[in-house]
Amino acid sequence: MNAPLAGIRVLDIATFLAAPFCGTVLADFGAEVFKIEQPEGGDSLRRFGSRSDAGDTFMWMSEARNKKSATLDLRTPEGAELFRKLVAQSDVVLENFRPGTLEKWGLGYAALAEINPRLVMLRVSAYGQTGPYKARPGFARIAHAFSGLSYLAGEPGRVPVVPGSTSLADYMSGLFGAIGVLIALRHAEKTGQGQEVDVGLYESMFRVLDELAPAFAGRGVQRERMGADVINIVPHSHYPTADGHHVALACSNDRMWERLTAAMGKPELAKDPRYATIPARAAHRDEINALVGGWTASLPVQELIARCDADQVPVSKLMSIADIFDDPQYAARDNLLTIDDPRAGPLTLPGPVPRLSRTPPELRHAGPALGDANEELFRTILGVSEEDYQDLRARRII
C-alpha cells in the first residue's frame, strides 16, 4: 500500500502492446491492473515471440507483468453488463480498438462516464479518434512509416530499414498514454471529472523527431537518410574498431571535439579552421569521419573506450544483448531482474523505469496465467454468486 499508485484500479481491455504497456508502467508503480482477455485464447501477445516454459511467450511474461488476468467477452450482453459494473468500481480503462468499436457495444466513453464520472479512458489507435484516417487499421510498423521515422532509417540511396524495434511506436505510445492517464487522474482528483486520453500510434513517433517539422516549415529542409550520421553535427556516428566491433561517438559541441582530438593524440585538429566549429566540421563531414574512423579502427574496443573515458569523450560500444548481460552498469542499476515464476521457472526481465528515490517500482510477478484473477474480480469484487459464476463460465462469457 506504500506504492505511489496503490488504490488505483485499471481495467486493461486492450490487446497486444501499446495501450497495455501503459498498464504495465502503472502496475510497476502499484496500480491494480486487471488484464481483461477473451475467454478463448486470451490476448494475442501470449502467442507473439519465443515461447517460455509456461507456454506463453517471453513477450507476455515481460509485458503483462504485475497484472492480474481475467476473462470476459465484452461482445455479449452479459459480458458488457459485468464490465459496466466493474467500471463503476474502477479508475481507468485502457483500450485500443478501432474508433467506434466500443460505442457499437454500448461501452463508449460517454456511456461509461454516466456510470463513473471520474473515469479516465486511454484510447490508443493507429491514427487517433478523429481525422479522415481514424477508421484505418495499423500497427507500429505502419506508424513508423506514416510518422516519417522509417523514411530516415537506413543508408542513403537504399531501402529504409526497421528503426530499431518493430514495436517502438507501441512502447512510445504506451509511455505517452501513461503520462496522459496520470495527468487525467490528477485532474479527476481536483475536479471529480474524468476524461478521454487520445493517442495515435504515429503521433508518438512524430512528436520525437526533433527539428524535422520546424526545419522544413522554416527553411524547406527535407532530411534524408544518413545512416549512422546526424544532419548537423560531426563526428556523431558509428565507427569500426580493430577487433571487429563498432562504437558510437558523440561530439555535440566544440568542447567535445577538443576532447576527442586530445584522445586521438591530434590536438592540433581542434584548432584547424576547417574543423574548429560545428558548421565547419559539418562542411567537411567525409574528412572528419575518415580521420575519426581511421583512429578507431586502429584500436581494440576496450582500449578505445579507455582512451575516450580518460578525456571524457562520450562513447559506447554498440552493445549486443550478450554484452548487456555481462555489463556491470546494467547490473548496478538492476536493469535486468531475475524472478522465479511458478509457471516458467527463472525469468530475467527488464527492470522497471524510472527509478524513484522514495517510491521505487517493483517487479512482483511475470505475466499471469489466463483467468488467474477471475474469482477475485467476479466473485469477490463484484459479488457474483457461485451459481451465476459457474453459469457464466459454462457459457464462456468469462
UniProtKB/TrEMBL annotation:
One of its GO terms (molecular function) is CoA-transferase activity. Keywords: Transferase. This is CoA transferase. It comes from Rhizorhabdus dicambivorans.
